[in-house]
Amino acid sequence: MHTPLTFWRHLRIAATLLLIGAALAPGYSARAADATSPPNLADVLRGLTVSSFMQKKAASDALANVDDPRTLVLLKALLSGHLYYRKSDKQVLVLSPSGDAYAVRDAVSGKLLGSSDKDGLTKITINNQMRGSLREAIARRSLYSKDRRVRLAAVDEMLDNLTPHAVGLLRTMRESEKDPAVLAKIRTGLALADLNHGSDAQRLAAIHVLAGGMNQTARNRLRGLLRKNPDGGFVEGNATVRAAARTALASIERRIEFYTIVQTGFFGLSLGSVLLLSAIGLAITFGVMGVINMAHGEMMMLGAYTTYVVQLMMPSHIDVSLFVAIPAAFAVSGLAGIIIERGVIRFLYGRPLETLLATFGISLFLQQLVRTVFSPLNRAVESPSWMSGSLQINSALSLTNNRLYVLIFALLVFAALQLVMKKTALGLQVRAVSQNREMARAMGVRTGWVDAMTFGLGSGIAGIAGVALSQLTNVGPNLGQSYIVDSFMVVVFGGVGNLWGTLVGAMSLGVFNKVLEPWSGAVLAKILMLVLIILFIQKRPRGLFPQKGRGAEG
Amino acid sequence: MNEQNLFKRLLADDRGGQALLASLAVIAVALPILNLVVPASSALHVSTYTVALFGKYLSYALLALALDLVWGYCGILSLGHAAFFALGGYAIGMYLMRQIGDRGVYGNPNLPDFMVFLNWKELPWYWHGFEHFWFAALMVMLAPALLAYLFGWFAFRSRVTGVYLSIITQALTYALMLAFFRNEMGFGGNNGLTDFKDILGYSLQSNATRIGLFLASVLALALGYLAARYVVCSKLGRVVVAVRDAEDRARFIGYKTESYKLWIFVFSAVLAGIAGALYVPQVGIINPGEFSPLNSIELVIWVAVGGRGTLYGAIAGAILVNYAKTYFTGALPDVWLFALGALFVLVTLFLPRGIVGLLRRRRMGKTAPTNLVNSL
Prior knowledge:
Chain A folds into three domains: 26-130, no CATH class; 146-237, no CATH class; 258-376 and 401-548, ABC transporter involved in vitamin B12 uptake, BtuC (Orthogonal Bundle), CATH 1.10.3470. In chain A, 67% of the residues lie in helices and 6% in strands. Chain A has helices at 2-20, 27-33, 41-46, 53-65, 71-79, 128-143, 148-160, 164-176, 180-197, 200-211, 216-225, 239-289, 296-313, 318-343, 352-373, 401-423, 425-435, 437-442, 447-470, 481-494, 499-520, 522-539, and strands spanning 83-86, 92-98, 101-106, 112-116, 121-123, 390-394, 397-400. Chain A has a five-stranded antiparallel beta sheet with strand order 4-3-2-1-5. Chain A has a two-stranded antiparallel sheet with strand order 6-7. In chain A, β6 and β7 (397-400) form a beta hairpin. Residues 17-38 and 550-554 of chain A have low confidence and may be disordered. Chain B has one domain (2-372). In chain B, 69% of the residues lie in helices and 2% in strands. Chain B has a two-stranded antiparallel ribbon. Chain B has a two-stranded antiparallel sheet with strand order 2-3. In chain B, α2 (15-36) runs antiparallel to α8, α12 packs across α13 and α12 (293-306) packs parallel to α15. The longest helix of chain B has 27 residues, at 207-233. Chains A and B meet through α15, α20 and α22 of A and α6, α7, α12 and α14 of B.
């Protein structure tokens, strides 16, 4: 239940930021802004602006001991040579390269002072002795950082280079660490150290500990134990240790295999969510009106371009742009859908093949329109910062955030649509018309109006799908075309006029495709999918969940 | 003479067909003369490029004729007919590739260039036999026929109809496109088959060969038209129309409707394959792009513009739309897709019977007979 929570937290943060209209600067300044001028940070930094390395060392040691969250950043800047001071007033600055120039920040407040070159600035140089103690200080500070991710990364870095000093740090850290993930990493590190230098009993215990994890370094180390010398004898003399290493390795690999399957499943669901988003609008229009809307893909394209335009209009608020783009895309595509329905499709009811051709013409028209207005090239839609990165569950399983959010988003859209169809007057009328148009009309349902609204709803949802797609693929004039055949397959597979069928169809096609992919390749997997669906249609021409009742005959 | 009678019977009631065959005969005589005899300096001279262009239009026209048979007469809107066209094209392309021999870039006498490039050591089994023209010519018809038979057998037997059938045909050509894009398929992948040198020993670059291919296209279209007309006028054709208008009723009367549909579908696929085989030597390349669903749909609009269910209408539509396409993509490249898109919408809304329907309606005045009203 971790994910939905973070999602809502992001949502809340984004909403708050929107309310106060704060400029969104990177985490560094945001974190620094809440504590104004602590006791002696500025004084300590001033101690660095001397030429004597002795004095500088003293100052950097003092800096390492200042109890402030900002010092870690400053220590790292000092180590990597990004710390400067102004010759005129000895103000210490952090420079980070941005484009051709450097972004200059005040070291104490973290405030962005603008960008400049290095004129009038002096770099704070360090020697090897300082470098060593800085590294150590950074490691120590990272290990005791309040942010668990910083601690995890610090321990991770240590695993690759287990000096006796590092082992000592890990040992003391083990006593105070509370976070289970960090603790597990520390145990792995200590076990690796024991494996190198401990007694046989300690080494067996270490192997036992390693068997519980999936760390890459640990696996390599275990494999090393089983390796043979050029003369044929084992590198590892002790047979018991070898046997233990073998079982440990086997159990690790079994677990990794399991997580690989979970990962494939996730990729499949992710593909399924994209299919669901693109097919669900189609399911409505096709199900209710029996109209094949070949321009459905272009409605998605319009949604994606709406996202692009929204981002152009609010370039400094990329993080919240999607929340503006979703209603905007719904409105743009929905409106386009209503215009198409009133302008063309209305005249073609009862002639499904003609509708197919006319809407195809519309799709060509819209594609060329976008090519003329924007350009035939793909446009870059930015991802908000909260969409990037991934949710690292363990070393074998990580779920990328953007796919995760799109999956959740698809399910939310599905739920919302279900609510509209089941709980609103419009939904009731839509269902009535889809089951028996004549009877619905006889009962006083304005079928023309329902048709227009349904088409608008289906197109609007396609627009929303376009917003989601803009986060996963390139936004270009051909965006819609590449999904149209797939989404038809989903609708046909799931059964027309049944949203649950679309959900099950999309998800199972997605998972099936990703399961096939590893052994057949992406293209062949797709071909196989199409062939299988073609064969499936032969068996069940009305899909997985055929519509029941008299309407089904029509 | 029996044949004479047959010919007369086929065209007796078909003024459109008479006009079509007459104009085909005219261009078959005129174009070669204007190209070969009239000197290049004269205003009347027709360049070889134009001859090849007309040849291309004629092969498209044959393809449109094939689609009209299934769509106009049987009500099967195939959105994958270009797949049969491309299969025929690939079959002749393979023959042309084998004719290159050791004149390729790599000079390998047995393997086409792209196979050498992929480090293949020997010819895949399905390339054997394509060094003979007769075999390739057979395959031009057999490959599309087989695909159409298998597909149709599955689809018609389980009574997949209407838009469902259209969508699966589209998926079929889409799947084939993806497959042919793969290098491992052994059909040249992305680049397809090209760099052809000669056909039956005649260089493809020479004027005479171009004229020969053009005349072959004229002949194929004329024969194709007569064959299609024969099918339509036969009893089978009547049953097929019955299936289009009321499949259930035809079935209840006792006809095995799926067999009729299958037969006409296969016949149409063969025609499309021949069209593809005429097309490829004249344009000099075949690649997987020919399988793209867009091509198949464009083909549908040719037939719709001309007027479906008339055969000659489809041919007129194919030539007209393609002429417009050549003109627009040359003069106003950005406008073409707008025009094509608008054409789709306008024709379906205002010209459900195409240009032929419009002409007929004008000739018959306001009393449009009921059998011209849309029946799909």
